[in-house]
Amino acid sequence: MARTVALTPEQVPAASKSTLDAFTRNIGFTPSMMASFAQSPIAFNAWATLLGSLSKALDVKTRDSIGLAVSEVNGCNYCLAVHSFTAEHMAKMPADEIILARKGHASDLKRSAAVQFARKVIETRGNVADADLKAVQDAGYTDANIMEIVALVAMYSLTNFFNNVFDPEKDFPAVAPAGSI
């Protein structure tokens, strides 16, 4: 049950309106998470800016895979549904790749290294071992790329935490619990 309300277009604060309207145009509807998050123009616009900047990091399959892995660790069913949907429809990832990503892996070795590292970052709260850092470097990621992975982990964790706290209405197809995949 939702712990906060999704704002109607008339209720959206003026400082959030243009950002929310842009998402609505791009997605084709207004996700309840965004209509709820828009209550705080400061937090919502900061997240939207970070999302926009990080949409240029790495490639879409790697970004979606990281989102799936982080959301799985954080137990965010809303984000798992969103990332599963976008991975399938936007990144064109097959169902088995989506499941692998949720488990912290990928069939592509380079992407798998990034996803495994992202999972280590969230599981250890950033206290990764030297071997974890070396593994992602050995896969071909630069320090700048690794910083982008860490930033993606933080951004996805922000929405995971928001959704876990406020439990917005689900408006994406639900996914099976990890235990059944």
Automatic annotation (TrEMBL):
Residues 44-110 form the Carboxymuconolactone decarboxylase-like domain. Gene3D superfamilies: AhpD-like (1.20.1290.10). It comes from the Bacteria. InterPro entries: AhpD-like, AhpD_core, CMD-like. This is Carboxymuconolactone decarboxylase family protein. It comes from Massilia solisilvae.
